């Protein structure tokens, strides 16, 4: 045999056509991908042009090798599919960090959100409002992330004007210079952009598609995205937050797992991450679930707690710190977020108060417990409706509460008080207005202040109620601040208040108070030592005079720019897609310019706005470009010579048709009958009148008797109603414990009557004014880690079990990321057989793109016609599978000929004549010469797989008989259960990974042994039984048992493809 040919055996895969009538053509020019079947020898490297592998890259946009917790990542898959994971921000609200998102928006295929926290989705509403293509991109998240993220964003914009961001000084300078208001737009003035309203925030989050855990989903692409080609996303529980997600992304042969900010340990409210299965994935086995095992790339966060405590010790340390402070009459401030970790802390404190008050503990009975946040009532309302997303203990507690309620309802007496549910607060009072905060802080300044514990947003202490409370309690040495997470740090920005306090806690300069818990563990509280703390207060102030004129001129420029960039008379929302059609065509040619220049209309906004500003918004003909033909009257000619991009062709104002795979979308309101249309118009007019009446009542002070008619939502007490938390009657401490309570806290106070003064600058043009003040700090500082993140031990334990091909570490500081990467490399080297680990560890920085794909060992070759005729395909889950034995021939080097006709064939080829079609290649090989290259012009670039010659077939058959057959496919017990039930059998699950069929056959799937399937049966019939006539009950039972066994075995083999061993 020539050294240029190899005998090979491979398993080939093809995707079964999903559309009726579609077919797959196979023949001499058909391309086949063989995966992992041919060794990469030096001779085989002659065919590198036929090698193929999926390519995908990963680029962190924020949070990598940095102490900032903001998370933004870009994943680019094969074919140009771009996935943005998270739209995070930090407390600096620096709009410069979002510039890259503005450039990428017209190219994104979809967006995935992982957690309802500021570092993961705080910039989502800003991008939707100020980047028009953003609203057209499909976004996917779990239901808790959507609802809690909405309340978090509303709290963010209602609490600080910094979130609105400011207009760039360069943009204002151009407008002011052109308008003659140079002094009005100086660098000292920071004009605020219009923030999204609560209604707009609700609209933006309503566009997000909700997903459930462990359910694969094929997303829809954005209008300007390439085809997704079967992309599948699956959400798994990550712990850490309610609805937090570990994303599994499957694209072709590539499997990517994105796990940033997860927690393997179970907590009071949140179940553990889904790595090992169990409730929402949290808990249970010793092996990683199959869906998350052996991914092509694992993207994981490197941020871990400095000292990991168990849940019991952590909770005990927090409660002991609180107890010591309230025992001396102090106030405890615990900064928290308003949507995620606040659920864990509020549940812990509420249940601790219930337990201690039941023990008649005077310290806790005399202390007050508060939770402050602008939208905290909505957050808790959402939490009460999402108990199924929480840990099993929460579900059991709610079921016990529901059983008690049903028992009380069956009794004749109507005065039975049902105990509180998991998130029905009996002692924790919810506060949503600044006037309420001022009221409780004023009580602290009385002659005999009462102890209180206040949870307040935000974590950074730079905005929200937490900053106001800190300024009020900082001067009293009896008070205490408990930090629950390590604060962010931005090198180019001033550290936050929380970061400053955390640095003081680490320094321990002014002394430490060492305390001891009931279990004997020690913890420390650091004295602030009367240090001075500088606090910046950001306020909105309305624009006046020349400032207002500059702002109006800038706003007019923006509107003119939007009108100029629109194609035709479409609306602003639909304009981006229409303009992008021009950029999507012929982008691969050099004359179209660089990719950045052709990303769409959003990338040209800055340049066009600058031109419009200098010319006082009056755009000239050269600014309009080719659109002058449709924008200007009596203009019929445009010189396209030397032009690039969209200026090279005549503009056509086409409105994109909204259609899907079933055809063009229709509007049902266009097909209403006359009477139906009248009813719809009357309903709309009635709704408008109701809204106008409601608006007339807003802002007006109501009488006390009118409140009772408003229902329970405003604390009304009609007939047969219980008194609510806003009753005017003040209750004593003993009466409060026995009094009825509402979902939002204890009854009997007058805090609900307090209203904030309306701020008239919230809706109009405004500027940002920052004032600074210095306060003395004498309180104590403590730190108890409630971040709910995985520790280094969990990470080093799971990575060898996950077995990723590549590991990408993000979301952590530079030192801890590099240290973790070094430890992981040593660990993987110790587990590997060679001197080096097979897993590559990558640590990219912000803006650094890394190749996260792996070598799939796949080659493209051609099948000879005689070989194709003998293929027998087997279908498994939409894939066609066949085993092939053949001889591999390099393309353009050799041609197979028949044994008997070798000399004649060689002579014909040397003479330059072409053989007849009947002379098909079979076994021998003849080297092609320079005179017969035309014979293989179309097939010379790829190697060819042909039939095995007879002299090699005998040896290959002996070898294949000795090899064990392969079972290709994946058996899922849920699918087997449905198949057996549809066949008339009884099938039910008995424990994890165990299926019982007809009470006689047990099917087990062992994850510890790589998905091994085990069948056990009570009894089997013998061959004699099959031929025995009649028989008693024992024989019939045995026949039934054996029949079930063989039926199960048949169904299992029907779901797998059995191919000959290689």
TrEMBL record:
Keywords for this protein: mRNA processing, Nucleus, RNA-binding
CDD domains: CPSF2-like_MBL-fold
Keyword Cell inner membrane: no
Subcellular location per the Swiss-Prot or TrEMBL entry: Nucleus
Biased composition (Basic and acidic residues): 697-706
GO biological process, one term: mRNA processing
This protein's GO CC annotations: mRNA cleavage and polyadenylation specificity factor complex
Bias kind Polar residues: ranges: 683-694
Boundaries of every Beta-Casp domain copy: 342-501
Compositionally skewed regions (Low complexity) per UniProt: 913-942
SUPFAM superfamilies recorded: Metallo-hydrolase/oxidoreductase
Gene3D superfamilies: 3.40.50.10890, Ribonuclease Z/Hydroxyacylglutathione hydrolase-like
MF GO annotations: RNA binding
Pfam families membership: Beta-Casp, CPSF100_C, Lactamase_B_6, RMMBL
Region feature Disordered, mapped onto this chain: 569-600, 676-765, 909-942
Entry annotated with the keyword Nucleus: yes
Biased composition (Acidic residues): 579-595, 750-761
Family according to the record: Belongs to the metallo-beta-lactamase superfamily. RNA-metabolizing metallo-beta-lactamase-like family. CPSF2/YSH1 subfamily.
Protein name, per record: Cleavage and polyadenylation specificity factor subunit 2
Organism expressing this protein natively: Sordaria brevicollis
């Amino acid at each position: 045999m020539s050294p240029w040919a190899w005998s090979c055996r491979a398993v080939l895969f093809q995707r079964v056509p999903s559309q009726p009538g579609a077919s797959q053509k196979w023949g001499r020019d058909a391309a086949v991908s063989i995966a992992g079947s041919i060794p990469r020898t030096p001779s085989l490297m002659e065919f590198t042009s036929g090698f193929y592998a999926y390519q995908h890259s990963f680029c962190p946009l924020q949070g990598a090798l940095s102490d900032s917790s903001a998370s933004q990542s870009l994943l680019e898959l094969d074919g140009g599919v771009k996935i943005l994971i998270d739209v995070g921000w930090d407390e600096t609200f620096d709009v410069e960090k979002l510039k890259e998102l503005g450039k990428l928006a017209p190219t994104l295929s979809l967006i995935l959100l992982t957690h309802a926290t500021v570092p993961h989705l705080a910039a989502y509403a800003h991008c939707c409002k100020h980047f028009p293509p953003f609203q057209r991109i499909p976004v996917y998240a779990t239901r808790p992330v959507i609802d809690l993220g909405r309340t978090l964003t509303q709290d963010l914009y209602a609490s600080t004007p910094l979130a609105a961001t400011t207009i760039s000084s360069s943009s204002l300078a151009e407008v002011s210079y052109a308008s003659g208001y140079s002094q009005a737009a100086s660098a000292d003035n920071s004009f605020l952009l219009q923030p999204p309203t609560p209604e707009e925030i609700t609209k933006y989050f309503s566009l997000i598609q909700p997903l459930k855990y462990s359910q694969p989903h094929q997303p829809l692409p954005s209008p300007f995205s390439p085809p997704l080609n079967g992309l599948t996303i699956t959400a798994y529980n990550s712990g850490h937050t309610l609805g937090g997600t570990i994303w599994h992304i499957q694209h072709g042969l590539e499997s990517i797992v994105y796990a940033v900010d997860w927690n393997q340990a179970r907590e009071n409210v949140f179940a553990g991450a889904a790595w090992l299965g169990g409730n929402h994935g949290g808990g249970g086995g010793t092996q990683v679930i199959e869906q998350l095992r052996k991914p092509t790339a694992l993207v994981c966060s490197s941020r871990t707690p400095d000292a990991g405590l168990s849940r019991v010790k952590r909770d005990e340390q927090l409660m002991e710190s609180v107890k010591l402070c309230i025992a001396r009459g102090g106030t405890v401030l615990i900064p928290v977020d308003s949507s995620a970790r606040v659920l864990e802390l509020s549940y812990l404190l509420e249940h601790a108060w219930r337990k201690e008050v039941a023990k008649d503990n005077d310290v806790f009975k005399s202390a007050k417990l508060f939770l402050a946040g602008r939208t905290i009532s909505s957050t808790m309302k959402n939490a009460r409706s999402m108990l199924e997303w929480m840990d099993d203990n929460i579900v059991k507690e709610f079921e016990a509460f529901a059983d008690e309620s049903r028992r009380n309802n069956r009794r004749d007496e109507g005065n039975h008080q049902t105990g509180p549910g998991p998130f029905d607060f009996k002692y924790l009072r919810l506060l949503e207005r600044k006037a309420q905060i001022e009221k409780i802080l004023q009580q602290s300044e009385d002659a005999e202040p009462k102890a209180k514990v206040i949870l307040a947003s935000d974590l950074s202490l730079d905005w929200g109620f937490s900053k106001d409370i800190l300024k009020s309690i900082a001067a009293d040495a009896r008070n205490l601040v408990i930090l629950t997470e390590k604060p962010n740090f931005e090198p180019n920005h001033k550290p936050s208040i929380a970061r400053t306090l955390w640095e003081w806690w680490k320094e321990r300069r002014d002394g430490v108070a060492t305390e001891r818990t009931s279990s004997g563990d020690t913890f420390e509280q650091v004295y602030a030592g009367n240090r001075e703390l500088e606090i910046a207060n950001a306020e909105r102030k309305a624009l006046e005079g020349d400032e207002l004129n500059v702002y109006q001129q800038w706003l007019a420029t923006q509107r003119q720019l939007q009108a100029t960039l629109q194609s035709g008379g479409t609306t602003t929302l639909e304009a981006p897609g229409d303009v992008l059609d021009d950029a999507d065509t012929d982008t691969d040619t050099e004359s179209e310019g660089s990719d950045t220049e052709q990303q769409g209309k959003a990338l040209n906004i800055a340049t066009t706005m600058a031109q419009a500003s200098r010319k006082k918004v009056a755009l000239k003909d050269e600014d309009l470009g080719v659109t002058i033909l449709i924008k200007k009257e009596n203009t019929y000619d445009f010189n396209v010579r030397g032009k690039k991009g969209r200026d090279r062709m005549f503009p056509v104002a086409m409105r994109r048709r909204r259609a899907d795979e079933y055809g063009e979308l229709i509007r049902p309101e266009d097909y209403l009958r006359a009477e139906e249309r009248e009813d719809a118009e009357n309903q709309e007019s009635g709704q408008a009148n109701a809204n106008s009446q409601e608006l007339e009542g807003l802002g007006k002070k109501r009488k006390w008797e009118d409140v009772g008619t408003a229902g329970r939502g405003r604390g009304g007490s009609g007939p047969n109603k219980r008194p609510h938390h806003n009753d005017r009657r003040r209750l004593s401490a003993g009466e409060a414990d026995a009094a009825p309570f509402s979902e939002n806290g204890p009854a009997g106070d007058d805090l609900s009557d307090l209203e904030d003064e309306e701020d008239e600058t919230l809706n109009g043009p405004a500027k940002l004014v920052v004032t600074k003040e210095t306060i003395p700090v004498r309180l104590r500082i403590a730190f108890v880690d409630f971040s709910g993140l995985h520790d280094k031990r969990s990470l080093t334990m799971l990575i060898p079990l996950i077995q990723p091909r590549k590991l990408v570490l993000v979301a952590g500081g530079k030192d801890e990321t590099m240290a973790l990467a070094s430890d992981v490399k040593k660990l993987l080297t110790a587990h590997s057989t060679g001197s080096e680990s097979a897993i590559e560890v990558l640590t990219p920085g912000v803006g650094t793109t890394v190749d996260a794909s792996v070598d799939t060992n796949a080659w493209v070759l051609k099948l000879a016609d005689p070989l194709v005729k003998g293929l027998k395909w087997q279908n498994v889950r939409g894939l066609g599978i066949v085993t092939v034995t053949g001889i591999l021939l390099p393309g353009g080097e050799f041609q197979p000929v028949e044994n008997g006709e070798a000399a004649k064939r060689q002579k014909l080829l040397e003479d330059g004549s072409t053989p007849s079609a009947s002379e098909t290649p079979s076994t021998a090989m003849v080297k092609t010469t320079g005179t017969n290259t035309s014979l293989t012009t179309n097939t010379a670039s790829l190697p060819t797989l042909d039939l095995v010659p007879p002299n090699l077939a005998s040896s290959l058959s002996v070898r294949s008989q000795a090899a064990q057959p392969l079972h290709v496919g994946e058996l899922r017990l849920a699918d087997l259960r449905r198949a057996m039930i549809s066949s008339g059998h009884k099938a039910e699950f008995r424990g994890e990974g165990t299926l019982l069929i007809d009470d006689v056959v047990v099917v087990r799937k062992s994850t510890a042994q790589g998905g091994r399937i085990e069948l056990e049966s009570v009894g089997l019939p013998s061959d004699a039984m099959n031929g025995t006539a009649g028989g008693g009950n024992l024989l019939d039972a045995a026949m039934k048992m054996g029949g079930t066994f063989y039926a199960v075995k048949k169904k299992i083999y029907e779901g797998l493809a059995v191919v000959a061993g290689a």
